[in-house]
Amino acid sequence: xxxxxxxxxxxxxxxxxxxxxxxxxxxxxxxxxxxxxxxxxxxxxxxxxxxxxxxxxxxxxxxxxxxxxxxxxxxxxxxxxxxxxxxxxxxxxxxxxxxxxxxxxxxxxxxxxxxxxxxxxxxxxxxxxxxxxxxxxxxxxxxxxxxxxxxxxxxxxxxxxxxxxxxxxxxxxxxxxxxxxxxxxxxxxxxxxxxxxxxxxxxxxxxxxxxxxxxxxxxxxxxxxxxxxxxxxxxxxxxxxxxxxxxxxxxxxxxxxxxxxxxxxxxxxxxxxxxxxxxxxxxxxxxxxxxxxxxxxxxxxxxxxxxxxxxxxxxxxxxxxxxxxxxxxxxxxxxxxxxxxxxxxxxxxxxxxxxxxxxxxxxxxxxxxxxxxxxxxxxxxxxxxxxxxxxxxxxxxx
Length: 398
Prior knowledge:
Layout: E1 10-14, H1 22-31, H2 33-38, E2 41-42, H3 49-58, H4 74-83, E3 88-92, H5 101-112, E4 116-123, H6 126-138, H7 146-155, H8 162-167, H9 169-176, E5 185-189, H10 198-208, H11 228-241, H12 250-263, H13 276-296, E6 299-301, H14 327-364, H15 366-377, H16 379-397
Parallel strand pairs: 1-3, 1-4, 2-3, 4-5, 5-6
């Protein structure tokens, strides 16, 4: 019997989870948006930031005046663009994982009657996730130490914290997948440490229906890990800042994007790790989630075994992995960081000066500005401009 073609668009909702390679996947697709379109995949909205704004809308935060007014109604705008498509559509942001069951139900309902809806979750083992989430919390003004964060994760038996809201992969799929068949729920596992970094992309691309080989994955990696020294320095900066540089507000622009991402992430440091006891706890929790996913019958792309690493067995008493780096190490890190910040400030000062000079030229000599700007856009004019300057210099030398 011939299969009946479903004329509705196929909409993939990549709803999480944080720290599972989502930034890498999004960077690959948004940096090559036209390639995605040629592959039959629409990324709705004007830019990736619209998908972040949609998470605010879905989670009932868009009305808060601290967020851009553009966030209001963003989910419905993306949904309308999605259902008007004639192919595959991807809406992707890891903060969708924080939606409640009712918020997720309403979001899916905006699509379900006019599209074939699929939910995608990328997932990584909790041994790596706990350390990664602590770093992310520190990048968002948290002053909690690593030891305290790990203990709070372990003590949250009711699973009400942000960590378990977004890192219980089975729970995320349950909330977003109500009413959808299991084959429309996709779990993409992040391969173990040391695996080919393109494996995750290959798996994800297979789910959303694009040829992975058509995309360049050699991108500058963002949202990298911090070493223990860098994370502790940032944590202490958060303590010192207090209520200054609030979040939302200037904090992500100044502290997260410049201090954390541009400077601290580029420096080497001691790798964060869990104690042997906490590694066993994390592995046991991952195994329980993997068992729930297997019982639910969702489509697993990769291997559920990727979520259950083998805990390290220490033959000798281990050093305390939660020990705070010594003051001497933090002093050296602080001095180097200040030096790097001064370089960044100078680069930005120079960029502002260039912009001011261009503005002044445009206002004082608009014809000359227009000719110079045109020459920068056209090779022939640029060549003629160079020849004119060379001839001018020869005349001044003679």
